[in-house]
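Side project, low priority. Logging it here so it doesn't get lost.
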Amino acid sequence: MPKLEQFELKINTGAGGRADTPTYSINGFPVDFESCEGGTGSGESFRAIGMPQSFPHALLLIGPETGSWDIESVEATYECAGSDSYTVYLGAVTLDEETSLNIWHEPPVPAFDV
C-alpha cells in the first residue's frame, strides 16, 4: 500500500446540495480539507485538497450531518510517494448522515506489452 501524500477532489453537485463544508476521514479519523473552493449547493462545483501524508486503509468522503447530498460526479486525483499521480472518476451517489463515499482507490497496476 503506497503512502498517500495528497489528493484532490472535484465534485459536481446534483439537485440536492448541502449547506455545510464537506470533510473526509482517513483510517477512521475525521479531517478537514487543507483547501477548498467552490460550493456544494444544488448545481455547484466543489474542489478540495487533502494532504493526509499517511497510508490509507480507509479514505471516505463524509456525508452531511443532516439532509442529503446528491453528487453527480467525482474526479479524484492521487499523489502517492514514489509513483506518478493518477485520476479516478466516480459516478452519481447520494450521501447522508449514515452514508459516506469510499474515495480510496489503489494505483493502477503497471502494464506493458509483451
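Brief comment: The chain has one domain: 4-102.
Revisit when time allows.
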